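Example record used in the benchmark description.
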Amino acid sequence: MKAQLLVAAAVSFLTFAGFSAGAQAPQQYNSLPGIAVAGSQDYDKIPEKARHFISKHFKGVSVTKCELYFAEGKYEVELSNGVDIDFNNDGEVLEIDAPDNAVLDPALVKDLLHDTAFHRLAKDGVNSKVESIEFKKGKVVEVEVMIPDPDTYIFVVDGDFIGFGD
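Model output (structure tokens):
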């Protein structure tokens, strides 16, 4: 009986010690924080070209969030009207998204796209239905429009139409 009681006590102790050891936070990096991946950024510190773009196309709209993603070398800016814009370190637009169930201003779309791409959208009657524009690696532009699938037009940067995507 004493042996069983001793074994039960030992098992209880080891179980409790194991759980409490597992609950402790690991001490990494000598108790210093790890590598910063992103951080809030003062709007005045984003590239001048990005600030000019925002002031030109979004007069009177305030910035609600400005974040720098260090590893990706991009700035993410959220505006009070719900528009999200990603800029590279040079201040060029990488991606712009309208809020849910909304579209981007056609004048903005015209300013961002090559004339050939914009005219293709206008010819198809969707230049006023653009939800987002994404510039992929400086070679391809994806334009998502508010229509049934296929809802993405794909262009090369110089405006030539490649095809549709979902």
